[in-house]
Design goal:
single chain; alpha+beta; Four Helix Bundle (Hemerythrin (Met), subunit A); Jelly Rolls; 4-stranded antiparallel sheet
Length: 540
């Protein structure tokens, strides 16, 4: 059965049809989502603290950037293939079906949350409308909040993020990102509530403009925490938060929100009924949100060091066990070195180990062959073989752990195996068994990563030119020469048989050669040489 990558590559995409798994498309999706996140921060600030003010340069630039990018994303969505749910790895390539599925799905949210209702209303009514037109204009400006609906599309990044996690490859980095995500959530929650707290406490805000006239008049007549006179000292004049600079207003609201999540700050208390209701509801929400956030932060922080801390705890008991029986220091060091090697190679105390043990034997073998194939790619001669031969060689090769001091090849002796170093350090020995130093004597000579590679290239006996020993605990891949030559030879013979079945001689005596199944230039050259020999022997 073909794997997903092969199925994906076999499908032919139209010239202007995008594959959502392409790096450029994934980068675009992340860029759009990044703008959505920034817009979810900037838009509430604009509606709360800059309401009623003329747009400055930043507001104008941000409006045009987001509008152009979001509309461009709508256009790209009509030209992006959709993965079939019933057949992962295959794609719907019909533009008609793609358009129908997009129109029935995310199009409404993407399009209607991008339309600049306020700008359209201003261009239609201008400054000549009556009270009704002004009120309608204010209501249409409120529809800008619909842009926050784009955050619903963050759910589609789950599959993309899984691919990114695999590419990152570092669990510590992933856990650090999870820690930053929790911190970002706390900051975003404080930001949004700071904007709401200012809107609730301001007598002139977007919320008041949406109220009926009588209700708005009654609300403005109430005392508000933003307009309540305050003093810094007995000899200072009165001031209100409404008179403070916009930056100071926002910083205070953010500080107040963070304080309410722990306890009520003494600087400001609600002074009217709507403010008390808002603070009461937020305190109930903040009580649970703060507890969950603290727990998530703690969990994310400890996960970064969880595995290393667990290993150190268990190593403590290993040392106690060895000391109880008065184990010799060299033995203790070898035990600790080997256990550390297993830990670094994720053989012990690894989250994936328990799950991988639940796999059936067939899948376990495939995963093991995958690991061996990963290391076999270091052999340049493996690239000339077909997939079938490589799979057989993987099945016959073995990953082995060797303690320090193990000699894996001896100078002058026939090499029956080739070795690939996966981890650890090897060292070269001279005829007397001493380490070989560099010509300058500054350090040990570097041992090759692949040992006795040449023995895999010839059926004749090959003698090791060096004596190589493990200097630390090493993980080595052992490749049998006999097995390698057997399956490599079968692969070459199979390619030749394919050619013999495909070619035929015309009446003119010309041999037509087809290279189906021959993957490399070397194999094709061999077949051509055989074809030439056949022509000569036939007398044509």
């Amino acid at each position: 059965m073909p794997d997903l990558d092969e199925m994906e590559q076999n499908q032919v995409f139209d010239k202007y049809l995008l594959n959502p798994n392409w790096t450029s498309k994934m980068s675009w999706d992340f860029f759009v989502m990044f703008l959505v996140l920034l817009d979810s921060i900037i838009l509430p600030f604009q509606l709360a603290f800059k309401y009623g003010m003329p747009d400055d340069g930043f507001d104008e630039v941000w409006f045009y950037i987001t509008t152009i990018v979001f509309f461009a994303d709508v256009g790209l969505s009509f030209n992006t293939a959709i993965e079939r749910k019933d057949s992962p790895g295959t794609w719907i390539l019909s533009r008609r079906r793609i358009a129908c599925m997009y129109l029935k799905g995310w199009f409404s949210i993407d399009f209607f949350s991008t339309v600049p209702y306020g700008r359209l209303a201003e261009s239609i009514f201008g400054d000549n409308g009556g009270a009704g037109a002004v009120r309608l204009l204010k209501m249409l400006k409120f529809l800008r909040i619909m842009r926050l609906m784009k955050m619903l599309r963050m759910s589609k990044l789950k599959a993309v993020w899984e691919r990114i996690e695999v590419r990152i490859g570092s669990i510590a980095i992933i856990q650090s990102i999870m820690l930053m995500k929790v911190l970002a959530f706390v900051i975003a929650m404080c930001h949004w509530n700071a904007c709401l707290f200012w809107v609730i406490g301001s007598p002139d805000s977007l919320l008041v403009d949406l109220m009926p006239a009588e209700m708005a008049s009654n609300f403005r007549s109430l005392n508000h925490w933003t307009t309540l006179p305050r003093k810094d000292g007995p000899y200072s004049g009165d001031w209100t938060y409404e008179q403070k600079p916009m930056e100071e207003q926002y910083i205070f609201c953010f500080y107040w929100t963070l304080g309410v999540m722990r306890t009520m700050p003494a600087e400001v208390t609600p002074v009217n009924f709507p403010e008390r209701i808002f603070v009461l509801l937020f305190m109930f929400f903040a009580l649970s949100a703060f507890a969950v956030s603290v727990a998530s932060l703690t969990q994310a922080y400890f996960k970064i060091f969880e595995r290393g801390r667990s290993f150190n705890d268990e190593m403590f008991f290993v040392r106690m066990y060895l000391n109880r029986f008065e184990a010799a220091k060299p033995l203790e060091q070898r035990v600790k070195a080997f256990l550390a090697h297993l830990f670094e190679r994720r053989r012990i105390l690894a989250k994936e180990t328990n799950l991988m043990e639940k796999l059936p034997d067939v899948l376990k073998n495939e995963v093991q062959n995958m690991l061996i194939s990963f290391h076999l790619q270091n052999l340049d001669i493996i690239k000339d073989l077909g997939k079938g031969a490589i799979q057989e060689i993987c099945a016959a090769s073995h990953l082995q752990d060797h303690m320090p001091g193990v000699v894996i090849c001896t100078m002058g002796q026939v090499a029956e195996y080739a070795w690939i170093k996966c981890s650890g350090r090897l060292q070269l020995l001279d005829e007397n068994g001493d380490r070989i130093m560099t010509a300058e004597g500054a350090g040990r000579a570097q041992a090759p990563t692949i040992v006795d590679r040449e023995t895999l290239t010839t059926p004749e006996p090959y003698r090791s030119p060096l004596t190589i020993q493990t200097a630390t605990v090493c993980e080595l891949l052992q490749i049998s020469k006999a097995t390698f030559l057997k399956f490599a030879g079968q692969d070459q013979a199979g390619a030749t048989r394919i050619w013999r079945k495909k070619f035929h001689a015309a009446n003119t005596g010309i041999i037509k050669v087809q290279f189906s199944g021959l993957e490399t230039d070397e194999q094709q050259n061999t077949v051509c040489a055989s074809a030439t020999t056949a022509v000569l022997m036939s007398g044509h």
